[in-house]
């Protein structure tokens, strides 16, 4: 368990845009520019992280590294991350270069969440990106293989024999990908839906991201299963003999009802219990959301075992409602909820 209770609290944006009347993000440009503004504003409020989800073939954020680099250039303290990048779509060599550049611009603040991904908008969309599972592999196996290559490349060891007649002088020995950002290898997170993949991530030395859905492995409430997953991850981490302390994040939809806008958007209920569904024939459990006046919200959150186990909490924000409203949502949690729960 997170022993001292203090948490890093950040936001997670899916980066939607649409032509709906209430949307303040009508175009991709709106989302990208507002994401930068939201990260800046969250940093000024004292939030600890600005995280972005990645989806392909959708009106959502898709290409994370230009955005991460821009946020890194416009902020000074806040962690900048993803939750998550679907590794079925990624070239780990190109990704190593992009991630290294973004992390150097942010001066070592990148927290890169990756995963095998979730169902996308098109059938086997990764095939359009030029990737196919090897013989006997599933697409999930391919994602994990891409992730393992990425981790190896981020170590910064040379592996490529130099051209004997290069255009520019080379350092001695085998060459690595550049730019290399020292320390980034320790800031890679795996988004795990099952206990087994959480344990696999621990063995490879990745931090853990656990979202608001996971495989339903025993029928218990979502937050209890999530807490069990985190404990299994930490046990596997200890058994692997890693020297550093791992980090664990969970994400939640949490809204403090402070005014009439909050009550209009989120005060009508309907998400106060877990939901069961199926994702690619796997039974999954979706965690509840929270929306209440601060006093009641504090009491409800005290009983969330998944949050208690984590050191980092990501607040999912309704990005289409605009920067000002989302900063209001974040500020309400930081000022009126987090201190009472010992997160601050």
Automatic annotation (TrEMBL):
Residues 16-256 form the Luciferase-like domain. Pfam families: Bac_luciferase (PF00296). GO terms for molecular function: oxidoreductase activity. Its EC number is 1.-.-.-. Gene3D superfamilies: Luciferase-like domain (3.20.20.30). It is an enzyme of class 1 (oxidoreductase). Keywords: Oxidoreductase. SUPFAM superfamilies: Bacterial luciferase-like (SSF51679). This is LLM class flavin-dependent oxidoreductase. It comes from Paracoccus simplex.
